[in-house]
């Protein structure tokens, strides 16, 4: 049976651009609730400049509050070497380095060009190895850039090939602004597979144009078995105009389970966590299974 690992990103991608400022304790509770539903990997913090991304200023505090949980891998986002050194002072298990596919977006996001972010990855990988921290990469704006438009498959393949050469532990293609469609997802991942060897691939989708879930299923068909998702479907990038939520964890899990794909996650617990989260955020969230309910409904199963 096909099995997919869902990486929970609500505490990082979900909250980094959210008008609601959660307290460190609330973030820790959010992560623990998803862990209780079976999540074994989650982006819990970003070691970005706190002035640029104030929602993530308590990165160290979140990791401290979380502590070390058996069988759970915490991930910290890293945008530059300075961020890595901050991460290395915590108990974080993984650092995820962001390499942006285009120069204009890269300058806005990380104040360096695309190859500059690739150089950060090259520098961070041996440092992480020495510190006993797993280093992964997310190729941001792989499917399109808000400032430069189309991103060629050759560009994505070149960045993935370099990351593989540096010894990265996992390569993710991220549709940061939610422009991907299933055919491109398949083509692009197949092209990356040709250069990535045994390195696991991960996919990251936003549902900005309602193609996020179709893209996630297309990625699985293309042999990608690690998917990012955000509880309740919240999220967005502070440096990308009109960026909206990630695909929702509970909606993704519903689609996967009913497609016969295992995740090891407890959908009922995810729905409870999503309801709690919506109360904390004090608004309606984008996920739909949390509103419509599961199918078949529990009362028909007795
Ligand atoms: Zn994202």
Topology:
Blueprint: E1 5-8, H1 10-14, H2 24-36, E2 41-46, H3 59-66, E3 73-78, H4 81-88, E4 94-100, H5 103-110, H6 114-131, E5 134-140, H7 153-166, E6 171-175, H8 182-196, E7 201-205, H9 212-221, E8 226-229, H10 249-258, H11 267-281, H12 289-292
Helix pairs in contact: 2-3, 2-11, 6-7, 7-8, 8-9, 10-11
How many β-strands, per DSSP? 8
Provide the low-confidence segments as ranges. none
Principal-axes shape call: globular
Compute the number of helices: 12
Largest sheet: 8 strands, parallel
CATH superfamily: Aldolase class I
Q: Report strand %.
A: 5-15%
Helix content: 40-55%
Largest sheet strand order: 1-8-7-6-5-4-3-2
Structural class: alpha/beta
Radius of gyration over all CA atoms, rounded: 18 Å
Order of helices and strands, N to C? EHHEHEHEHHEHEHEHEHHH
Ligands in the model, by name, code or SMILES, are: zinc ion
CATH topology-level fold name? TIM Barrel
CATH architecture call: Alpha-Beta Barrel
First and last CA, distance? 26 Å
Determine the mean pLDDT: 96
Number of self-contained structural domains: 1
**Top-tier CATH class:** Alpha Beta
Pfam family, one: HMGL-like
Family: Belongs to the HMG-CoA lyase family.
GO molecular function, one term: hydroxymethylglutaryl-CoA lyase activity
Keywords: Lyase, Metal-binding
């Amino acid at each position: 049976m096909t099995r997919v690992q869902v990486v929970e990103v609500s505490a990082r991608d979900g909250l980094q651009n959210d008008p609601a400022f959660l307290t460190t304790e609330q973030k820790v509770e959010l992560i623990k609730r998803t862990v209780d539903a079976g999540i074994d990997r989650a982006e819990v913090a970003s070691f970005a400049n706190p002035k640029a991304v104030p929602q993530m200023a308590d990165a160290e505090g979140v990791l401290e509050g979380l502590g070390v949980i058996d069988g759970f891998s915490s991930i910290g986002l890293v945008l530059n070497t300075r961020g890595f050194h901050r991460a290395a002072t915590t108990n974080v298990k993984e650092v995820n380095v962001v390499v942006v596919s285009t120069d204009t977006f890269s300058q806005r996001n990380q104040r360096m060009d695309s190859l500059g972010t690739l150089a950060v990855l090259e520098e961070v990988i041996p440092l992480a190895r020495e510190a006993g921290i797993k280093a992964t990469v997310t190729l941001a704006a792989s499917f399109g850039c808000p400032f430069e438009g189309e991103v060629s498959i050759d560009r994505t393949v070149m960045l993935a090939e370099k990351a593989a050469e540096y010894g990265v532990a996992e390569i993710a293609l991220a549709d940061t602004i939610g422009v991907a469609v299933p055919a491109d997802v398949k083509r692009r991942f197949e092209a990356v597979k040709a250069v990535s060897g045994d390195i696991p691939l991960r996919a990251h989708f936003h549902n900005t144009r309602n193609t996020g879930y179709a893209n996630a299923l297309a990625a699985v068909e293309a042999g990608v078995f690690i998917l990012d998702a955000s509880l309740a479907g919240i999220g967005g990038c502070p440096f990308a105009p009109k960026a909206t939520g990630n695909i929702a964890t509970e909606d993704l899990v519903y689609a996967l389970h009913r497609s016969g794909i295992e995740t090891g996650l407890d959908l009922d617990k995810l729905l409870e966590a999503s309801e709690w989260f919506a109360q904390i955020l004090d608004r309606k969230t984008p996920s739909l299974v949390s509103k419509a309910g599961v199918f078949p409904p529990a009362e028909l199963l007795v």
